[in-house]
Give the backbone structure.
Amino acid sequence: MTNLTAHQEYLLLGKVSNTLGEQEIKEWEQMVQQLPEVATAYKQFIDQLPHDQVATGFSYVDDPGYWEDITASFKEKDPAISPAPPARVRQPSFFRSRWMAAAIVAGIIVGSVFLWNQSRQPANRDNMAANEKPNIELRLADGKVINLSRQQGSIRTNAAQFNNTNKTLTYSTSNNTAAIAINTLTVPIGLDYKINLSDGTEVWMNSATELKFPMAFADVTREITINGEAYLKVAKDTKRPFIVHLPHSTMQVLGTEFNVNSYDSGLVKVALVEGSVNMEAPTGTAKLVPGKQAIYHEGQSIQQETFDAKFVLGWQKGLFYFDEVTLQEIAKVVPRWFGMQVVIDDPAINHKKFVGVLDRNQPISNFQGDLKLISGIDSYVDKNNVLHFR
């Protein structure tokens, strides 16, 4: 299995433990047909496992009390692990069956852990300080601020008629000079939001993202500015190119679908799903084709690479997939998704690498507990709402 990618290992372990979803089963079958080495790895893997346990998909790990007792023993030894709410008995996690399958063969996945939870409990937003509840805000060009987290349905202003429904903003306005003034939409930590622009372009915004846009576009170009991360489905208009201004770079398209990410200072990533994109930076230009991602480090030339849609676009489902990623990199996502700062107290674990998923729809305590059970990395949240790894 050492020559397989993280996603191939993920599907293989799911096949062994009988935990693949319908779509994943199709991926597995297609992968086996196209890649003989995967079928070989699968056979080698199951040959090393107890046949009776393979036949039952390691279902014994989901027996009542199996994980509850283990979790309780860890909490008795270390009260710093955040407990689950008293009224809720934590259900078995999807990742555990796969991890157990992998763990039976020692060393089969060194330094990695599958952190996947399928119980889909509502996220515990108590991670945020009580007086810092996030709000999605629209600041109009005239200075008026609309709290879109509180004001739902129809909203009328001098600038436009808005409709804020199901985490999506639509609007209509008369095409006049005032309509091209710039407005600012801000999505805070822990939330995501969608806006349909006047030309029909759809913009899905990730946490901690800002969008600057006019109510109506000019006759020659359509221009917006994004700081953070967003997925765009640009309406086709051959007469008016769509221009996206990013930190340190600019993109021009006619009609296409792509993801932009400028979270890290001095770094911009653009992943093209459909259509064509021209990316311009001070050091040069690059034309993207679907399936390619442009990476621009400030002051350097634009690089291109193939990207995995699961890892780049998973945020739209509240999932951050990581493949051989250090704890430091995972720690960058926690503040954006859970509204809490992260401190790694033990330098020895800074560069330890992981494969898995962080689910924004789950309480952060689930992630803490899983990390403790599988990797032995301890963590706690202090009185200032700071998450410590040690």
